[in-house]
C-alpha cells in the first residue's frame, strides 16, 4: 500500500468521524467527553481508533510547536544577551575615551598653572607633577578593566541561567509528553483487553447455548 493511499484513507476516516461526531452531538444534545471512547453505544471500534489516532496526532503537533517555540525563545534570549554585551562594551569604551581626554586636559591645565606660578622656582616640582599623571591614568585603566571583567562575569552567569532554564523546560516538556503517551497506551491496552474479554464471553455463552 502506498503512503499516499494510507494518507488519503486516514483523511477520509477523520472526515467521516467528525461528521459522525457532529451528528451524535446533535442527536443527544450533549457534547460528550474526549475520554468517553467506546463507552457510548453509537461509537464503533473504528471511530474509537480514529479518535485515538487524532489525539496522538494533536499531541505530536503540540510537542513540535512547543519545541520550536522554546528554541526560538532561547535563540532570542542569547541574541539579546550578546547585543547587551556589545552595547555595554561600546558605552564603556566611549566613557573611557571621554574621561581620558578630560584627564589629559585637566593635567595639561594643571601643568600650565604650575609652570606659570613657579617660573622663579626650581623645575623639580613640575617634574614630579608630570610623573603623577601616568599613575592616575594607569589606576583609571585598571578600574575600567575590573569593571569590564565583573560585567562580563555577570553576563556569562545570566547566559548560563537562561540555558539551565531552557534545559529544565525541555526536560519537563519531554516528561509530560511521555506521560501522555503512556496514558494513551494504557487506555488503548485496557480497551483492547475489554474487547477481547467481551468476545471471549460471547464465545462461552454461544457454546453454552449451542449445547442446550
List the keywords.
212 residues, 88% helix, coiled coil, 3 helices
Q: Could you give a short description of this structure?
A:
By secondary structure, the protein is mainly alpha-helical. Helices cover 88% and strands 0% of the residues. Residues 105-120 have a biased composition (Low complexity).
Largest sheet: none
- Overall pLDDT, averaged? 71
Number of helices: 3
General shape: rod-shaped
Beta-strand level of the residues, as a percent range?
Answer: under 5%
Low-confidence stretches: 26-43, 125-130
Q: How far apart, in Å, are the first and last alpha carbons? A: 47 Å
- Cα-atom radius of gyration: 39 Å
Region (Disordered): 99-132
Coiled coil: 145-179
Keywords: Coiled coil
Biased composition (Low complexity): 105-120
How would you characterize this protein structure?
Residues 145-179 form a coiled coil. With 212 residues, the protein is mainly alpha-helical. It is built from three helices and no strands. The protein has helices spanning 3-28, 45-117, 124-211. Helix 1 crosses helix 2 and helix 2 (45-117) runs antiparallel to helix 3 (124-211). The longest helix is centred in the C-terminal third of the chain and has 88 residues, at 124-211.
